[in-house]
Design a protein that fits this description.
The complex is a heteropentamer of chains A (727), B (178), C (146), D (101) and E (395). Chain C is an all-alpha fold and 146 residues long. Helix content of chain C is 66%, strand content 0%.
């Protein structure tokens, strides 16, 4: 397949056109709009499937990429050259992302036709979804940071619209503002980072940035802030990482994501799985070579990731809202991905992005399926609280089955995808810890988080699906789940892809341990860190205006399974991987076991834990007081006092002394000047000015006659004299 | 030789028609017909210049379209009748008076000086080149319209759309603002 | 340079000349042989025997203008479509038919949307104002009744 | 015709007359006629230069679009005139000196 | 670039020799001069034939209507009343020429002239045969659309200048009807241009063949519809029944030519009849293969036994016969329709144009473009035959 911009861009354009068309017709014919949206995303899915199979099963090596550009606009002039180029960049990572995003989004679209059917704004939801998906696809295909940022912000807007979809509810309105403003903090830094990179590289394109990195442009560059010379690489990568923190809800900007579940559940599935939060991690992966430059950066990222992973997992322990547990688990899993980036487990982090997208989409859709069925006939609202559930297994078999698959995946049970990806991150964290003791800290956080993950997910499952129904009235009103294509089929398809075999490439399980230790799977041969030296030649390459095919041939590279170490060390490292894998299995099963004992056997009383650690329990219930801290601490204690102080300065000092003092001085001057005023100013200057203005007025008024022909004459005369002076 | 004849005929039509537009005072309808004459002359000039398609376009768009539109508009604004409206103003204005013609003459003189000054340079710089033979321009125009100028082609349809919608909205009878 | 190619415009000029000559010639010739007895009644405009009231050049309904407006837009559009249409076959033969087809369809569709607008807004209805008056008067009646 | 000057003078003549119409006439429709003359003059100029100077067809394309724009301008302009007449019962240009009906 | 009568004649040696002789005699290049005289003769011949056809049109109209209504029709003047048209002509010339005192005199005189000029100008590109076409302009059909819209201006000015209410209404209606129906007509013509790849009548007819299955009307289903759209639009453009609202006797006395008498009225009538012939000729050329004769007899190659100049001319005569047969048959259909269908109301007229014909024509245009793209411009019959031979593996 010959990839040109025009062929590939349809992936983005189909949902976008669907959005444009639907925006006009949605009020009249919502059902047609839904059909158009689904068809468009399916078309994108087919196109990206073509690309995916081309890249993954095709003849291309890990380094193969397609990069096509065209000149967007050209500001050559005044001796300065600025050509803004746009284009597409497809490598294996892009191909997989495209396939994952379109596939998951398509299934979510299908599910939404069931979930949103009775909604009053049924059609409009799909309008937003189309734009959202299109923005994510555009972001994935971007070859430069500017278009990346454009789509990034477009996604921010879409999430704003979707979170606030039920804008009648005050909560939803607050939640979307919160999400928008919180991510905006990260975005500002991201934009600064883009500018910092541009001033050093002179280009926004990824390949140019890679080329600049490989030519050492960042190694010694410094930037002076307040007189301190700071390394540019650190500043730029920190700023860009702030974008990831905002978008992927990392500590300390994680507060928006739990509130984002105010939107309809399918949109939560899209935000939490395929699009919004994945974009942040995707950015980190794209800019990974930049992070590698400064030695401070990776440990910092790993620490952020570890803290997020554990912190969110602990909060999830005490949540009673069905979707809140899932929301915190998302934050926690994103923490794992960032941890993976931080420990240099590039491909593991990406793999976790993919696997997490699939099982989290499935979890949210299943949650939607559950919530949709639980209809409180007294308040006429859907029930999300777990204490009112229980025993749902008998009523909804398919949902139950799909959800267990995903729970196993997220908990890291062998044979499931989460085990393959998450535990590889932990294994690589251990490997890094062997070399640099600092990494013990994030690695430990990660392992504890894994234990808690297994626990809280199983707690959720046990509370909701097993045991006796706690709200009998509610339970009796649930309809028996019958298989329907748009409710259960997406769930089952997604559940099918939570199996580890798709990612590990081994069916038998004989490589059970090796899966996490040996690096022979297809995934690893295809996803490797971008080798910046490959891009060196790009710097001088002369791009034509349109569609220049990459002429550089890349050597076929094998995955560097030895982390760049010698054979002997490598053996040691692999044994660490095995240890990590075994530890993961143990941790996963112990988490499940604890949950089992607490909620099924009821041997261990959860209340005891609550009473014993009541302080912690309250802290967790209040989400570590982060929201309070932001509101009470930063806004009330910080910004408002500062405002008050400034107001006081204004009133107390300027007003009191400067202005009132001047008044006294002025009074004295006034009497003197009054005399002067009357004689000179009033009579001569003011009246004189008035008279002269009136005199000019007579002349000038004729120009503003409103008579077009007079204007024409004036235009002609002025133009003639101008041309005369030129000719 | 025939090209000179054709050119002379076109030039006469253009000159007579233009002067007619300027000086026919009594009836705007007659001025429209004078404009028709001038536009016919322009079509002839296009033919002499080898722009066969443009000549035909001139006929189709102006003769069939713009002039009829103008005639309709004249009829819709009271035709040639010279009566007064309710404000006591002449419904159809006099076509200009001595004062306006004098001002216009001065302006024309000024702009003529400017243009002649520019044209003097052009004449000095212009070197005669061998003229191409007359050949069909339709295929070339069509090719240009869908290759180099495709954006202008599409945008012009949007321009026409805007003109259609805007003019329809403006000209819609008062009171039918459904 | 050969100007012979311009000769093809000759018949047009000749035909136009013949047309003009025919009109004037026939009338001049007729002048010699036909009667000429003008009278006031003959020179009056025909109005079924009555004396004409006022002049005929009164205001006309604006819908005539709207029709000619839509017409001129289409006319100009056809001026753009003709050259594209005449290269359609050529492009098709060299295998670029898809592009020109898309260009063509987009061009037409944009204008079709304008026509649809006029249609929906009722500019194409000849008797629209009649309906409107009916509606308004019926509304007025119901208001008065209530 | 081997020289471009006749055409240039012809176009110049049309332009100047159109200008005169724009300035001298008091009838809005007559002014629109003048605009048509001016636009035709410029289109003729483009075609002249195409034949005698650069000999590619960009000038023709330009003239084509000038014709299109002239048609659109006539349509909208005359619509405004008609509306103006409905409001003021006049098509005198000096009655259009105010920005309100 | 452009072909025509002269390029046909210049195939023959006699013409070349004659041109050379005159050039030598005059001392300058006399090609243009000779062309002028040839054209003048040809134009006069065409105008003469057309005037006769126009006159015969009035006769045929009466005779056919009489036939349809089981009457006799004109049968006093000459055999079968054939000389009726001469009698009419004499009557017209002898009638008093009245110009109403309230009329706009210069315009009143100019209106029939515009109609005549518009119609005569369009005769220049009517393809009588492959050789006898006055000038086969490469923008032929487009030019024809442009020059024939002068008729609309003429009718409008005729209605306006009479200063009579009947005339004014008729003129307004006539002009708006003509321009409205020009849209579907133009769109149908564009559709055919898409298929044939050129605007000159030579190209348009050259893409067809002598047999009905090679005509554009049977090229595909959409051209079949396009023909009817064209034909209905052409009827309305020529103000023929059932679209003769501008001259509707029952409501508008006589429409835009109420105040015209004598020769001036005759020119309006003549213009109308010749225009009917022209649109029928264009319909024949666009949809019915024009001058094409079956078995390619028209090229004259079948008579290769004869000297080429005679063979060619026999071919030309066959072509003329083919064209006139088709055109006159369509002419008959036009008259037939007039005496069969009742007149439309004015709102029905506009509804028919804008809400039926124009959308259909637009749809047709797009579908024909798609057809030309999808099947490489092959006609249905070519596709069928390709399907038949495709089973044996050929392509």
């Amino acid at each position: 397949m010959d990839y040109t911009i025009t062929t590939v861009a349809w992936i983005v354009l189909l949902p976008f056109f669907a959005f444009v068309i639907n925006a006009f017709i949605v009020k009249k014919v919502p059902n047609v709009a839904v059909g158009i949206s689904c068809a468009a995303i399916f078309g994108s899915f087919l196109l990206s499937g073509r690309i995916f199979f081309d890249f993954v099963f095709g003849k291309y090596s890990a380094d193969y990429h397609v990069h096509k550009v065209f000149n967007w606009f050209d500001l050559n002039g005044g001796g300065q050259e600025f050509v803004m180029k746009m284009g597409i960049y497809i490598d294996n990572m892009t191909a997989m992302m495209l396939f994952m995003v379109t596939g998951v989004a398509f299934l979510i679209h299908i599910f939404s036709t069931y979930y949103m059917k009775e909604d009053t704004r049924y059609g409009r939801f799909f309008v937003y979804m189309s734009l959202f998906t299109s923005a994510m696809l555009g972001l994935v295909l971007s070859d430069n940071l500017i278009s990346f940022f454009i789509f990034w912000e477009l996604m921010g807007f879409c999430s704003y619209s979707l979170i606030g979809f039920y804008y009648e509810k005050e909560d939803a309105g607050n939640a979307n503002i919160k999400a928008f403003m919180t991510t905006r903090i990260g975005d500002v830094f991201f934009l600064l980072g883009i500018l910092a990179i541009y001033f050093q590289v002179g280009s926004f394109t990824f390949v140019d940035i890679y080329a600049a990195i490989s030519s050492g442009m960042f190694t010694d560059a410094t930037v002076t802030i307040f007189g301190f010379g700071l390394p540019l690489a650190l500043i730029a990568s920190l700023a860009i990482f702030m974008g990831t923190i905002g978008k992927s809800a990392q500590f300390p900007l994680q507060v928006w994501l739990p509130d984002a579940m105010m939107g309809p559940t399918p949109c939560s599935a899209l935000i939490h799985a395929a699009t919004m939060v994945a974009a942040g991690v995707y950015l980190s992966l794209r800019m990974f070579p930049l992070y590698e430059i400064h030695p401070f950066m990776l440990p910092f990222i790993a620490t952020i990731g570890g803290i997020t992973a554990l912190g969110a997992a602990t909060i999830a322990l005490v949540q009673t809202d069905f979707k809140a547990v899932l929301a915190y688990s998302t934050i926690s899993q994103l923490g794992y991905m960032v941890l993976g980036v931080g420990v240099g487990a590039y491909n593991a982090a990406f793999m976790h992005l993919i696997t997490h997208a699939i099982f989290k989409a499935c979890l949210f859709l299943a949650a939607g399926s559950v919530i949709h069925s639980l209809h409180d006939h007294h308040t006429h609202q859907h029930v999300q609280e777990m204490p009112r559930m229980g025993g749902l297994k008998n009523k909804m078999k398919f949902t139950w089955f799909a959800m267990w698959c995903c729970t196993f995946a997220i908990a890291g049970v062998p044979f499931f995808s989460g085990f393959v990806s998450k535990d590889r991150i932990l294994g690589d964290a251990l490997v890094m810890a062997m070399h640099n003791p600092y990494y013990w800290f994030p690695a430990t956080l990660g392992f504890i988080g894994a234990l808690l993950t297994a626990f809280y997910m199983c707690r959720m499952m046990f509370l909701a699906f097993h045991g006796e129904p706690r709200d009998k009235d509610l339970y009796d009103h649930i309809h028996e789940e019958k298989f329907s294509w748009n409710r259960n089929l997406p769930l089952l398809i997604l559940a099918l892809f939570t199996l580890g075999v798709w990612f590990s490439g081994s069916l038998t399980g004989q490589k059970l341990v090796k899966v996490a230790s040996d690096k022979v799977e297809w995934f690893d041969t295809l996803i490797v860190k971008p080798k910046t030296e490959n891009f060196k030649n790009y710097q001088k390459q002369n791009w034509g205006p349109v569609d220049i095919k990459s002429t550089i041939s890349f050597p076929v590279s094998k995955y560097d399974s030895n982390h760049g170490l010698s054979e002997e060390e490598a053996h040691h490292v692999h044994s660490v991987h095995s240890i990590g894998a075994i530890a993961s299995i143990i941790i996963a099963f112990s988490g499940i076991f604890i949950a089992f004992m607490m909620y099924i056997r009821k041997s261990w009383n959860p209340g005891w834990w609550v009473n014993t650690f009541s302080t912690w329990y309250r802290a967790l219930q209040n989400k570590y007081y982060f929201d309070d801290m932001y509101i009470k601490g930063i806004i009330q204690k910080g910004l408002i006092p500062v405002n008050n102080f400034l107001a006081w300065v204004d009133m107390g000092i300027y007003d009191k002394y400067a202005i009132d003092g001047w008044e006294k001085v002025n009074r004295c001057a006034f009497t003197v000047s009054k005399w002067f005023d009357n004689i000179f100013v009033d009579t001569i200057a003011v009246d004189g000015t008035g008279a002269s203005v009136r005199a000019f007025n007579v002349i000038l008024r004729t120009f503003q006659s409103g008579k077009i022909q007079f204007y024409i004459i004036m235009i002609i005369l002025v133009l003639s004299s101008y041309i005369w002076s030129l000719a | 030789m025939f090209d000179s004849v054709l050119f002379l005929l076109s030039a006469i039509l253009i000159v007579v028609g233009s002067l007619g537009v300027l000086f026919i005072k009594e009836n705007i309808m007659h001025a429209c017909v004078a404009l028709l004459t001038a536009l016919f002359g322009v079509a002839g000039a296009y033919a002499v210049l080898g722009a066969d398609f443009l000549a035909a376009t001139q006929l189709v768009v102006y003769v069939g379209g713009v002039v009829i539109l103008m005639l309709f508009a004249v009829m819709l604004t009271g035709g040639g009748a010279a009566n007064e409206n309710k404000f006591g103003i002449e419904k159809i204005p006099a076509m200009g008076n001595v004062k306006t013609y004098i001002i216009a003459g001065v302006n024309v003189l000024v702009i003529s000086l400017v243009v002649i000054k520019i044209m003097a340079n052009v004449m000095q710089d212009y070197k005669a080149v061998a003229l191409p033979a007359y050949e069909s321009t339709v295929e070339k125009l069509g090719t240009l319209l869908v290759t180099d100028h495709v954006l202008a082609f599409e945008v012009s349809s949007i321009l026409l759309l805007g003109a259609l919608v805007g003019a329809a909205v403006i000209a819609r009878p008062i009171g039918s603002t459904k | 340079m050969s100007s012979h190619n311009l000769d093809v415009y000759m018949p047009i000029l000749i035909l136009i000349g013949i047309g003009i000559a025919l009109v004037f010639g026939a009338i001049l010739f007729g002048k010699l042989i036909r009667p000429h007895n003008p009278s006031r009644l003959k020179e009056q405009a025909y109005e079924c025997g009555e004396d004409p009231v006022g002049v005929a050049w009164s205001n006309f309904n604006v819908r005539f203008y709207v029709v000619s407006l839509i017409f001129i837009i289409f006319d100009v559009e056809s001026a753009l479509m003709f050259p594209v249409a005449s290269v359609f076959k050529k492009f098709n033969e060299i295998g670029r038919g898809g592009i020109i087809l898309c260009t063509f369809i987009v061009f037409v569709m944009i204008l079709v949307s304008g026509v649809i607008y006029c249609w929906r807004k009722g500019d194409l209805d000849w008797v629209k104002s009649f309906h409107l008056n009916l509606d308004e008067s019926s509304e007025k009646n119901t208001q008065e009744a209530s | 015709m081997n020289s471009m000057y006749p055409f240039l003078f012809l176009s110049f003549f049309m332009f100047v007359i159109g200008l005169g119409v724009m300035i001298a006439r008091k009838n809005i429709i007559a002014m629109l006629l003048g605009i048509e003359l001016i636009l035709n003059a410029s289109a003729l100029n483009f075609v002249t230069y195409t034949r005698f100077v650069n000999q590619n067809l960009d000038g023709h394309i330009m003239s084509l679009f000038i014709i299109i724009i002239a048609a659109a301008e006539a349509a909208v302009g005359l619509a405004i005139v008609i509306r103006f007449f409905q409001v003021r019962e006049s098509i005198h240009i000096d009655d259009a000196a105010q920005l309100q009906a | 670039m452009n072909e025509g009568l002269i390029s046909f004649l210049s195939q023959f040696d006699g013409h070349k020799a004659f041109v050379k002789m005159i050039s030598d005699f005059a001392g300058t290049d006399a090609t243009s001069t000779i062309s002028f005289f040839i054209y003048l003769a040809a134009c006069l011949a065409v105008v003469g034939v057309m005037a006769t056809i126009g006159g015969l049109g009035t006769y045929a109209e009466r005779k056919i209507s009489a036939d349809l209504q089981a009457r006799q029709g004109p049968n006093r003047v000459g055999p079968f009343g054939l000389l009726q048209m001469l009698a009419d002509g004499v009557k017209m010339i002898l009638k008093e020429d009245i110009i109403p005192s309230a009329a706009d005199k210069p315009m009143f005189i100019m209106a029939p002239m515009l109609c005549i000029v518009g119609v005569f100008g369009s005769l220049a590109v009517v393809p009588f045969s492959s050789g006898f076409i006055l000038s086969d302009l490469n923008v032929g059909v487009f030019y024809l659309l442009g020059i024939s819209s002068l008729v609309g201006v003429g009718i409008f000015i005729g209605g306006y200048s009479s200063n009579s209410k009947w005339s004014m209404l008729g003129g307004m209606r006539g002009a708006s009807q003509i321009i409205s129906y020009e849209i579907p007509v133009t769109l149908s013509i564009i559709a055919i241009v898409v298929l044939s790849g050129g605007m000159s009548f030579g190209t348009l007819i050259g893409g067809q063949g002598g047999f009905p299955h090679e005509w554009y009307i049977l090229h595909n289903p959409f051209t079949f519809i396009a023909f009817f759209v064209y034909f209905i639009g052409a009827l309305a453009e020529t103000n023929r029944a059932p679209f003769d609202l501008p001259e509707a006797e029952s409501e508008l006395v006589s429409g835009y030519h109420t105040e015209y008498t004598g020769m001036r009225f005759a020119f309006f009538a003549l213009a109308e009849y010749i225009e009917v012939f022209v649109v029928c000729g264009v319909a024949a050329a666009l949809f019915f293969g024009g001058w094409k004769v079956p078995f390619d007899l028209g090229t004259g190659e079948a008579f290769s036994a004869l000297p080429p100049i005679i063979a060619k001319n026999i071919g030309q005569i066959l072509q003329l016969g083919s064209f006139f047969t088709k055109t006159l048959l369509l002419y008959y259909v036009v008259i037939w329709i007039r005496w069969t269908l009742p007149r439309l109301r004015v709102d029905q007229l506009m509804t028919l144009c804008w809400k039926y014909l124009t959308p259909i024509a637009l749809f047709n245009l797009i579908m024909i473009a798609v057809w030309a793209y999808a099947f490489d411009g092959k006609s249905m019959f070519e596709l069928f035959t390709a399907m038949g031979s495709g089973s044996t593996g050929g392509h």
